[in-house]
Amino acid sequence: MATIFSRIVAGEIPCYKIAEDERFFAFLDINPLAKGHTLVIPKQEVDYLFDLDDEVLGAMQVFAKRVAVAIKKAFPCLKVGQAVLGLEVPHAHIHLVPMQSEKDMLFSNPKLQLSPEEFAEVQRKIVEAME
Ligand code: 5GP
Questions:
Q1: Domain that holds residue 41
Q2: What is the pTM of this model?
Q3: Tell me, what CATH number does 124's domain have?
Q4: pLDDT for res 126
């Protein structure tokens, strides 16, 4: 059975898409730690990030870099932090989170409750920054 993230890539489940190429896909996390919190995934269904082939993992990191640069432009921050957990969804993904300090990367922090309009605005800003 397809993972929830594969169903997002297929368009069966809606998302706020940020970027896509033949192999990778980026979209807003539905329970963001901060405005701009984005997930980067391979379209290939692999559970554990470090099971990806070296070449795919490298290319995914370069793709994530492009997204991170745009997030930082759209949501000025000290740095965009990167985290890999994968405890909830068994489809490899990188979290990109704008941060001002270390505590902004705590996944135990309360998540933001954004309206559809707010999500769309976050999406628009990052997508524009990628152009
Ligand atoms: P992890 O597997 O890294 O522990 O957490 C999975 C992440 O995916 C969580 O931050 C969660 O909010 C996000 N997530 C889970 N299901 C969905 C979904 O259907 N859509 C989106 N956009 N994000 C999701």
A1: 4-130
A2: 0.98
A3: 3.30.428.10
A4: 98
Nearest-atom index, ligand 1, CA of 4: 19
| CA distances in angstroms from 24 to 30, 82, 115, listed in the order given | 18, 16, 26
Pick the residue whose CA is nearest to atom 12 on ligand 1. Answer: 31
Q: How many domains does the chain have?
A: 1
Q: How far is the CA of 30 from the centre of ligand 1 (A)?
A: 6
| Nearest CA owner, ligand 1 atom 5 | 88
Query: What's the confidence (pLDDT) of residue 131?
Result: 86
Q: Residue with structure tokens 């505590």?
A: 103
pLDDT < 70 stretches in the chain: none
* Ligand 1 pocket member 89 (CB < 6 A): yes
Report the separation in Å between the CA atom of 44 and the middle of ligand 1, taken as the mean of its atom positions.
Answer: 17
What residues does 81 pair with on adjacent strands?
Answer: 97
CA of 29 to the centre of ligand 1 (A): 6
Pairing of strands 79-83, 24-28: unpaired
Kind plus residue range of the DSSP H or E element containing 27: strand 24-28
Helix, strand, or coil here: 34?
A: coil
Contact 107, 85 (CB under 8 A): yes
Active site amino acids: 93
